[in-house]
Amino acid sequence: MNAPVTVSIVGASGYAGGELLRLLLAHPHATIAQATSERLFGRSVTKAHPNLRKKTTLAFTRLGDLEPCDLLFTCLPHGDTMEHMPRFRDLAPRVIDLSADFRLNDPAAYERWYGRPHTHPEWLGEFVYGIPELHRTEMKDARYVSSAGCNATATILGLYPLFRAGVARPDATVVEVKVGSSEGGNRSTDASHHPERAGCVRSFMPVRHRHAAEMIQELGFGREIEIHFSAT
Fold it and tell me: Catalytic site residues?
């Protein structure tokens, strides 16, 4: 029998953190040690995730109170995880990051798509891009894994076999993705607030969507390609 893996989640009050909590609470070999939220520290995780009532008595802790664990998930806003990686490395032998901080291998590509330099480019080569259908072998032994973007995952899995076999050309392929309001996270804006979006379709970043950078990286097979991608 496998020994339980102690898991902590950084930034656990958002949608991604809540889904991680739900999945890990049901996992037979995982024990959740800590879940952080600077806004809700000291309060029950069910304050943010009422669907977990009767499933856990865990309370949110602060980032500064994190203790060592076997596996650390990070669900911080884009740009935050990279600033904390030296500490996260010392807290856990394995880190899985759900932000976009380490999805791209090339620091120049990160700056081009995210509009700012990567402050710790030395970490980019340490992370494995987290689509198991493409990188299962590397992920199995990796210390650091970067979870792929949602739109990127759907597109890459659909197009990878076609591009690999040469039966479809990137420059002749158009990708149109329909996304729900939850993709905008739990901090609503005029563009992402569910009552404003429900029942309608509106254009969202018809050009230069950041997830296109991941598609170009994973579907180019070492060469520069163009992806016609838009989201609504």
Answer: 150
Residue at 106: amino acid letter: D
Angstrom distance (rounded) from CA 59 to CA 165: 50
CATH number belonging to the domain at 5-149, selected among 3.40.50.450, 3.40.50.1980, 3.40.50.720, 3.30.479.20: 3.40.50.720
Per-residue pLDDT tens digits for 185-201 = 555 565 555 565 566 67
Given the DSSP bridges, would you call strands 94-97 and 71-74 parallel, antiparallel or unpaired?
Answer: parallel
Residue 45's beta-bridge partner residues? none
Rounded to whole angstroms, the Cα distance separating 197 from 96 reads 31
Q: Which two tokens stand for residue 59?
A: 């309370």
Q: How many CB atoms lie within 10 A of CB 156?
A: 22
Instruction: Give yes or no for a contact between 60 and 33, defined as CB atoms under 8 angstroms apart.
Output: no
Query: What gap in Å lies between CA 143 and CA 215, rounded to an integer?
Result: 23
pTM here is 0.89
As a whole number of angstroms, the distance between CA 176 and CA 229 comes to 6
CATH entry 3.90.226.10 includes domain 151-231? no
Q: Between helices 107-114 and 211-219, what is the axis angle to 10°?
A: 150
Q: Are 174 and 182 in contact (CB under 8 A)?
A: no
Q: Where are the domains of the chain?
A: 5-149, 151-231
Distance CA 78, CA 56 (A): 28
User: What is the spatial distance between Cα 9 and Cα 146, in angstroms, rounded to a whole number?
Assistant: 14
Q: Which tens digits make up the pLDDT trace of 157-193?
A: 999 999 999 999 998 898 888 876 555 555 556 555 5
